[in-house]
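Q: Sequence in, structure out?
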Amino acid sequence: MEIRTLAAGEHDELLELLNGWEIPDGWQGRDFFRRYLEHDPSYEDQNIHVAEDSGRLIACVQIFPRRIRILGHAVPAGGIGTVFTAPERRGQGVSSQLLARAVDSMVDREMEVSLLFGVRAQFYRRAGWEPWRAERSVLTKADARPPGVGETLAADAGIEIHDFDRARDFAAVKAIHSAYSAPRSGTVVRDDELWQASLTLAGNPDEEFLVARQGGAAVAYVRCTLLNGLLTMTELARTEEAAVPLALLMARCLETRDPDPLAPASLSSRQLRGALLLPVFDDLPLTVALEHRGFTSHPFEDPTTMLRCLNMNAMAERLDITLFPDEVPEEFLKRILPQDTLVFWPADRF
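A: Exactly. Output:
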């Protein structure tokens, strides 16, 4: 067996391997992963580590180079995704070898932290990543709240809600995203190429992107899609005074549509819109605005986010933080990035 990076001309073979992955929400594996090969601006063959045996690809791991915000600094990071082994070769340590090789590559390329999102927590923990158990929540509307009430409340407040229009809204949305995400550790720093990738890849396959305007200016936005059969908010942001417009956008997400572009054949719009899975976020005025409008959130611990410190000394220097005597990377990362402060928008998922 040979461990190496993907060679030129092996894309079809890689996608054939990944077609064995049972992707939820109706995707064929090759179609789901082809999008990242074609639309992720950071894609390079050197970012995909593969295992080959007897002339055939049997496993892969992909690195997604990103910069994430930590304490106001843009830190070079390596996301880990596309971790897959052919069913007949599982349990032989192949993925562990690929992950070790990916770590070596990220360190060589001066990435300082790695993050991944996976359900096999014990496997990734053995490979060196630590769980970052942040709290997510499910938002539900009051039973007595009639359909369309969000639209009425918005009109009463002088707020216009409409679908995202790139020509009209993109500049304002980028500015809102940058300001709202900047103080939140864990968010991805997006340039225009990563924004385009997010707009292309965040839908599953479709995305609902709503913008609130007040006084003629965009002040808040939300993005939703279907993930694992659940209506999921993949990103939210607002200007400083726009907690109420953002709450009304979230209320609109829980209203039924006819037709509903996000509802699969197995679910009616009413079934889909009965609850909204929220990302991790810290926004007290927004939480208060939702509660005052009769919405209830049900918190739960999300065990899927995992981090690994790749270069403690470089990160400490970048952040201008003095290391404690005998401090180890895991404890340093927990000190600078407490688990309840990590915010990652699923619209940047990999």
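The longest strand covers residues 56-70.
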